Amino acid sequence: xxxxxxxxxxxxxxxxxxxxxxxxxxxxxxxxxxxxxxxxxxxxxxxxxxxxxxxxxxxxxxxxxxxxxxxxxxxxxxxxxxxxxxxxxxxxxxxxxxxxxxxxxxxxxxxxxxxxxxxxxxxxxxxxxxxxxxxxxxxxxxxxxxxxxxxxxxxxxxxxxxxxxxxxxxxxxxxxxxxxxxxxxxxxxxxxxxxxxxxxxxxxxxxxxxxxxxxxxxxxxxxxxxxxxxxxxxxxxxxxxxxxxxxxxxxxxxxxxxxxxxxx
Length: 264
Ligand SMILES: C[S@@+](CC[C@H](N)C(=O)[O-])C[C@H]1O[C@@H](n2cnc3c(N)ncnc32)[C@H](O)[C@@H]1O
What we know:
The chain is α/β, with parallel strands linked by helices.
């Protein structure tokens, strides 16, 4: 079977990948050369040499980003819940001879809470807004990230920012209606015909949620795409008040775990 025939057999494709023989997996993609045009803007915002780095690509799809990060020397784990996309990803990695460097697993993002591994770089693009429990996912990923996260989400228009106050008086909640207040629109029905689009945060909401999970935003190389550094001086809310809530949410015996932590 030629590469084109195999590409056809594995369709439909969401990632347009330029295969080694010059053919493409989704040349007529409705967004253009996707996600190549996004990568072109992001690629200089992360280290060119990723030798020795471990990378986790969440919602890896056909593995466009896993591939590019592996080409830079990283050892990559890609996860996705969709078996069809993982088939594409495994086949593509073989075509580039990178199948030893990349491991794909069928997993839900929340399953990561029950794994031991941590990663230098967590690639979290195009998934956050598809989740019913987005902050839980971000709390889990904060535990998994050693250095850097590249984060992308569907978002609300606008780039307003504000210095979020330490406290808001009970009778002064009007401030929370300002455009810059960190917020997220809930999509009860569909957005762009897709019933799995649940949330659209605003710009300050993204910065604040990342901050609340222990990340500092250091750059925005592309629309809706944030470079977030795991800042050890920033406490994640898990280190402060809600560790037991987190443990309960990931299905752990929180009473026992909290006692263990206190005894340490
Ligand atoms: C919009 S695509 C984004 C693909 C890729 N990350 C990108 O930015 O081009 C969303 C991908 O995330 C996967 N996905 C959605 N929800 C997920 C979840 N809860 N856990 C793991 N993967 C998920 C989908 O199967 C799909 O491949």
